[in-house]
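Protein: HTH cro/C1-type domain-containing protein
Species: Streptomyces rubradiris
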Amino acid sequence: MEAGNTPRVGAAVRRRRRALDLTLAEVARRSGLSSPFLSQIENDRARPSMRSLQRIADALGTTAVQLLAASDETRTVDVVRAGDDSGLDREARVRPVVRGRHQLHALEFVGAHEADREFRHRNDELMYVADGSVEVEAEGQLHRLGRGDTLLLSGGVRHRWRSTEPGTRVLVVAVGDHVEVVES
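Structure follows.
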């Protein structure tokens, strides 16, 4: 059984799976994870690593950020302290900085991150480099960002990114997929 420090996401995974009318076996096949492990996650008897959570999210046509957001209650006021690592995945070095189901999702990435996965979100996303530097490949162009730089990615833009210095800290803020953005 895999163990991670991600918050309990079982109910969110189950809701998403059922909304898509998928069986555990189908999600297992799509994700490459076992049905018993997925059952344990859905029943909050196991917590997936961020890597496994992303595999589950891919199988369910969503993102790990969306599953994390859907797993927590909405809060009208919530302070997340710098030292609060209750949602920190130590292996992936990623920490949610907004908890609950809100219109915005935010994650802080610390340390080395590779461009091994391509992302494409339905809505806009903002990347802010707090420390270090990153390279972002988007729309066929490579963008090098340093401390204090930001990059806006409109919804639908395929992209991947990686840190290029040890100790890099990146804040990624995205409009939730459950929010319908209306063009005016």
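Remarks: The first strand starts at residue 94 and ends at 96.
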